[in-house]
Amino acid sequence: MDTSSRSLIILCTVLAACLRLAAAGWSQGTATFYGDADGSGTMGGACGYGNLYNAGYGINNAALSQTLFNNGASCGQCYLITCDRSRSGGQWCKPGSSITVSATNLCPPNYGLPNGGWCGPGRPHFDMSQPAWEHIGVVQAGIIPVLYQQVRCTRTGGVRFSIAGSQYFLLVNIQNVGGSGAVGAAWVKGDKTGWIQMSRNWGANWQALSGLVGQGLSFAVTTTGGQYLQFMYVVPGWWQFGMTFGTNRNFAY
Predict the structure, then answer these.
(1) Range 53-57, long-range pairs (CB < 8 A, 24+ positions)
(2) Which InterPro entries match (predicted)?
């Protein structure tokens, strides 16, 4: 077999592999890492989850570029990521490895760099915790090409509601969401009220412009996957701002 024939076969093989990946729902992006080697530097973030262990997300997390973050609507979503050996930089991949991460933060554009850097507008990029990133890449590289797809989130335990705000409004961080991982709509009900529609304030924080201090609280949530659940009487009337209340229910899709 001559060199041109071998080259053609290799090209066709690569193209076929790319077509299979596209059909399987994979998209191309890039990935870096931030924080410390133990991942502690990724706690907190633009979704408002605070301590990611307490909130149910742990160390396998990532900050999403502006395009993927979608103004916080992607908070909590899960992504399966693998290093893409077919593209430039693929020599830094760990073959046969992938990792599922939860979206917990925003990687903002850096307009000191051309086009806002890797997290600039239009670029699908994951700035991952170092432990998660090292599942798929060699740390000396710093940045690798990846393939990713959104996948179903499997969480331990039920959905959690962390209460903040003031006597005039309620701010609730909705955590540990399974299924699609992200909240599409939310409602709150006090002991003395009907259901009140909430709106996204920032990240995974949802607000109700009502004074509900002293009332027991129930919640209803619809995920971006379309599943609706009610969480009745999960917050007793003696709650205080700063408290978090767990449930025994979670989403499947």
Answers:
(1) 54/244, 55/160, 55/162, 55/173, 55/175, 55/176, 56/155, 56/156, 56/157, 56/160, 56/175, 56/176, 57/102, 57/104, 57/175, 57/176
(2) Expan_Lol_pI, Expansin, Expansin/allergen_DPBB_dom, Expansin_CBD, Expansin_CBD_sf, RlpA-like_DPBB, RlpA-like_sf
CATH for 26-151 (1.10.3720.10, 3.40.50.920, 3.90.640.10, 2.40.40.10)? 2.40.40.10
pLDDT tens for 108-153 read 999 999 999 999 999 999 999 999 999 999 999 999 999 999 999 9
**Per-residue pLDDT tens over the stretch 34-78:** 999 999 899 999 999 999 999 999 999 999 999 999 999 999 999
How far apart CA 152 and CA 141 sit, in angstroms, is: 29
As a CATH number, domain 159-247 is 2.60.40.760
Chain region(s) in the chain for CATH 2.60.40.760? 159-247
The CATH 2.40.40.10 portion of the chain extends over 26-151
**Residues in contact with 201: Cβ distance below 8 Å, sequence separation at least 6, in sequence order:** 171, 207
